[in-house]
Design a protein that fits this description.
Elements (H helix, E strand, L loop, with lengths): L1 H12 L5 H19 L5 H7 L4
Length: 53
């Protein structure tokens, strides 16, 4: 699932109309990545933060 989210962001980079959306959402994704690397569970956070909008 995490890899799919990263792939989705990579797909959006090619669409200029989505660049502002990426700028607004990438900081929260970075925080989730930090939590994941620390071994924390992030599944519910991904559902609330990344998939909104």
């Amino acid at each position: 699932m995490f890899l799919n989210i990263c792939e989705y962001y990579a797909f959006l980079v090619s669409r200029k109309e989505k660049h502002m959306w990426i700028r607004e959402h990438i900081p929260s994704l970075i925080e989730l990545c930090k939590s994941l690397l620390k071994g924390k569970t992030v599944f519910y956070d991904i559902n609330q933060v990344v998939l909104t909008n």
